[in-house]
What does this fold into?
Amino acid sequence: MAGILLVEDDPAVRAGLELALTRQGHTVTSYASGEEALDHIRERRPEIVILDVMLPGIDGVEVCRRIRKIDQLPVVLLTALGDDLDIVVGLEAGADDYVVKPVQPRVLDARIRAILRRVESASPDRLIFGDLVVDRGALKVSRAGREIHLTPTELRLLLELVRHPGQVLNRRYLLRAVWDHDHVADSRLVDACVQRIRAKIEPVPAEPVYIHTVRGFGYRFSPP
It folds into this structure.
């Protein structure tokens, strides 16, 4: 069960989700604004943040960006149906997943549990690819001796890619392996996450040497 920080400005939606998640066994702290949520994170770190995109004052995307500057804790966005631009921008800001409103509590709970499994899973070995080191036991990644901070989802995706060096993994496979679902429309989760990983591990993100795109198929981890 998770310690959840819920950020939703609609009182009815907030109360409904808080009740449903509490019934699932989670501990929920809720706020109506991003400012309050950021103050809470600085004082008491939750295990996961459920974040509405449309908030008064600081919107959800900006809250996500600010969280990423101080912490790598998991973030799930709540987005309105059809707001594809908000979804893409939110994923690029560092969100791990998203759920479209009206939110089905069982779907949200499944996404939360999937993320928690990503945090807990590990394989006890250390892989070295040139100056990139992936320690699956300690769940740490470093390049040229400097630790790289990845979110749990970014780490899980990188671990999945390095498990199959030289092999092309399609987006649907990666969705199942990392996000525990394989809706074709959610392939942008994979693309956005790969983009964020490249920005952190690649010497020149625009010219990747570790994670290569295979057009029409997916991605291949091929270290130099």
